[in-house]
Write a structure and sequence with these properties.
This protein is of the alpha/beta class. The protein has one domain: Alkaline Phosphatase, subunit A (3-Layer(aba) Sandwich). A hairpin with a 4-residue loop joins β10 and β11. α2 runs parallel beside α4 and α2 runs parallel beside α12. The mean pLDDT is 97. The protein binds magnesium ion and zinc ion. Magnesium ion (MG) binds next to α4.
């Protein structure tokens, strides 16, 4: 579970607004995560996503590659190679930096059409989010929807259609680009999508890897818009609740909730828990270097503690899954 741009202040602003109803606080194991990239003290979401997904720091803007452009294998691809079911869910285009880091290797995050094409290089079982235009309205005129259908994906474009799918592979491309803001009518897309992805992926016996992103907490930070940050963090927390509820029932599932970096340099100089009103002050319109919290619950969650690096998230997931390294990685 990745809340893009969700630092401790974003989380605590949402905690204050909900008056202590934030579900991610159920997690008993907590770490602090350093987020700097190979090129910069302040990371972007491409380098940060790559660090979490592959265990390698890279240059800001690059996805799934080392700074010298050597492609590296993501935890999702390792899961595929080990016959686990895999999925991605986001409230942005699925070709945006965070989900892209789990599926693609490109020199620039801007290569969104190339990223869409690389969804077809893997056997990912479920992906739900925006970015339809990168699949069927491309400068190269390829129609990747046809390619997905040919590979036995059920392709849907609305949430009700998505909810009808009860088995098999699913590509739910619900928006031409990004999902709308929660405050502008996205509804429960993120928690419904998380629930649907878990239903589909957990039907197999070998287990699964799923990455769910609350993509727009970051955008609230860039806009220095506290309400946007809070609404998106609460919405992300609802998706965390779906994951934690499943994990608690299932007993064999580790849930990791973290962020790729902090956005906005947010502080909370005042507030009131009795009326749920935090005050927010932003110190930048960009990302900051402030380490981000990581919350974990379930088998292996005790491995996440202390002051860790974002690449340690991959390394610990990899160890807990018991995968074996590819040559060159
Ligand atoms: Mg993102
Ligand atoms: Zn950002």
């Amino acid at each position: 579970m990745i809340g893009d741009g969700m630092g401790l202040s974003q989380m605590y602003a949402a905690y204050t607004a909900t008056q202590d109803k934030l579900v991610m606080t159920r997690c008993p194991n907590i770490a602090l995560v350093k987020t700097f990239s190979d090129s910069d003290y302040i990371t972007d979401s491409a380098a940060a996503g790559t660090a979490i997904a592959t265990g390698h720091k890279t240059t800001n803007g690059m996805i799934g590659m080392l700074p010298d452009k050597t492609p590296v294998t993501s935890i999702l691809k390792y899961a595929e190679d080990n016959n686990l079911a895999t999925g991605l869910v986001a409230t942005s285009a699925l070709t945006h930096a965070t989900p892209a880091s789990f599926i693609a290797s490109v020199e620039s995050r801007k290569e969104v059409e190339k990223i869409a094409l690389q969804f077809l290089y893997t056997d990912i079982d479920v992906f739900i989010g925006g970015g339809l235009d990168n699949f069927n309205n491309r400068t190269d005129s390829l129609n990747l929807i046809d390619s997905l259908l040919f590979r036995n994906y059920q392709v849907v474009k609305t949430i009700p259609e998505m909810m009808e799918i009860t088995r098999g592979k699913l590509a739910a491309l619900l928006y031409t680009n990004h999902a709308p803001k929660y405050s502008e009518g996205r509804g429960d897309m993120l928690s419904l999508s998380t629930s649907k992805a878990i239903d589909l992926l957990s039907s197999g016996q070998k287990g699964f890897f799923l990455m769910v992103e609350g993509s727009q907490i970051d955008w609230g930070g860039h806009d220095n818009d506290l309400d946007y940050v809070i609404n998106e963090t609460i919405d992300f927390d609802k998706a965390c609740e779906v994951a934690l509820d499943f994990a608690e029932r299932n007993g064999e599932t580790l849930v990791i909730i973290t962020a790729d970096h902090e956005t906005g340099g947010l502080s909370i100089p005042a507030g009131d828990l009795t009326n749920g009103k935090p005050e927010g002050k932003f110190s930048t319109g960009d990302h900051s270097a402030i380490p981000v919290p990581l919350y974990a619950k379930g088998p292996g969650s005790e491995e996440f503690h202390g002051f860790i690096d974002n690449t340690d998230i991959f390394k610990t997931m990899f160890k807990l899954f018991g995968f074996e390294k590819h040559a060159g990685n």
